[in-house]
Amino acid sequence: MIKIYEMSQIQDQEIFLRSDAVQDVSRPVSEILQAVRAEGDRALLEYTKRFDKAELTSLAVSGAELERAMEQVEPAFLAVLREAAENIRAYHAKQKRESFWMEEKQGVILGQKVLPLARVGIYVPGGTAAYPSTVLMNAIPAQIAGVEEIIMVTPPSANGEVNPHILAAAGIAGVTRIFKVGGAQAIGALAYGTESIPRVDKIVGPGNAYVAEAKRQVFGQVNIDMIAGPSEVLVLADGKSNPAWVAADLLSQAEHDRMASAVLVTDSRELAGQVAEELERQLATLSRAEIARASIEHNGKIIVARDLEEGIAVANRIAPEHLELCVDNPFDYLGQIHNAGSIFLGRYNPEPMGDYFAGPNHTLPTSGTARFYSPLSVDDFIKKSQFSYYTRPALERDYRKVSLFARKEGLTAHARAVDIRFEEGQA
């Protein structure tokens, strides 16, 4: 049964402390990464045999396999994938940045070049669940940014094949090359490069504890998007909300895994009790009921606030990955939400709309990091170079100021680099 808390009766830490244990996998991940770096494809094939039970002779997905996958996927779902891709493209196209050039002082030109990363790697989870949505959400912003090579890695099934829905999404999203490898070993391959898999500039995409730890360890060798934790949803609902709808929204995240977090914050004690009852009723109907129940019982909670303003303060403190604002006139409260990965406004916008179809990205900051991290975007697939140009008259106007600045910092060579250009005999 989910726990219900009254704000007036509990201590701050009781609300915000997650009860799930963090699995320390740093040592085995380090060993896997070292093996991949030293042995390349040989290590990848061995780990794929050990962990995925697949004996492969080639890691690459062929063009024939991709074509066969497109034929295996039902036309209705292909149509949905294509429409979702269009929505994602339309949204992320608005994020594209342009280079700029400025001449605000005579003789001085300043600017910034915006360049796409040359090659990025996308990790797509496999195993018992397939997530074609992850392919769309990660590949399309990279494509919009202008990335030349989008490399996808995903674990194969025991028969050595990749889920056709994942491959279909890759074809629609414009993925360049696909490889059958998962886990920490796939992250190592992308970070270091092997005989088959090219080294990338950045790795994006979610994964299990081993994947997250591998991304943490290779950061610096390669860039990463973020260290993603278990999925989260916080539903902020007033007393007019339908308890069955709220319970369904909470369970939509609880079914991800046992460590997922589903939280209801409400100003209605009556709604809190009704949602708790609905959760029990709906849990019995789920295909992943055991997982969802573990999530609800260990990490789920209902918080009864004095009013919506206090509820918003709680939401900002938790900084959830997904925040549903189930109230009348939700735009009236949008300006008060400061910490959330993705905000879902109104009673007819459940979180799964963002997971699959609406357009905003579903790769989001978790574990309170929405305080300082942002959703995945086109910005994650670009780099910026700045440039400047001074004419002689412009430098003559300003060099004494720079020289003074440098000497105040004790850097006389810095000062001399500007002074020497105006010393007698140095022109």
Brief digest:
InterPro entries: Ald_DH/histidinol_DH, Histidinol_DH_CS, Histidinol_DH_monofunct, Hstdl_DH. The protein has 427 residues and is an alpha/beta fold.
Helix content: 40-55%
Main sheet? 6 strands, parallel
Basic shape: globular
Whole-number tally of structural domains? 3
Q: Roughly what fraction of the amino acids lie in strands?
A: 15-25%
**What is the alpha-carbon Rg in Å?**
26 Å
Number of DSSP-assigned strands: 14
**The top level CATH class name of the largest domain:** Alpha Beta
| CATH hierarchy: architecture of the largest domain | 3-Layer(aba) Sandwich
Which whole number gives the mean pLDDT? Answer: 95
The CATH superfamily name of the largest domain is Nitrogenase molybdenum iron protein domain
Which structural class matches the secondary elements?
Answer: alpha/beta
Give the N-to-C terminal Cα separation: 82 Å
Alpha plus pi helix count: 17
Keywords: Amino-acid biosynthesis, Histidine biosynthesis, Metal-binding, NAD, Oxidoreductase, Zinc
Catalytic activity: L-histidinol + 2 NAD(+) + H2O = L-histidine + 2 NADH + 3 H(+)
GO molecular function: histidinol dehydrogenase activity
Pathway: Amino-acid biosynthesis; L-histidine biosynthesis; L-histidine from 5-phospho-alpha-D-ribose 1-diphosphate: step 9/9
Description:
There is one protein chain. The chain is of the alpha/beta class and 427 residues long. The protein has three domains: 199 residues, 3-Layer(aba) Sandwich (Rossmann fold), CATH 3.40.50.1980; 144 residues, Rossmann fold (3-Layer(aba) Sandwich), CATH 3.40.50; 32 residues, no CATH class. It is built from 17 helices and 14 strands. The protein has a six-stranded parallel β-sheet, sandwiched between helices. It has a five-stranded parallel β-sheet with strand order 6-5-4-7-8, with helices on both faces. Helix 5 crosses helix 7, helix 6 packs parallel to helix 7 and helix 10 crosses helix 11. The longest helix has 19 residues. The mean pLDDT is 95.
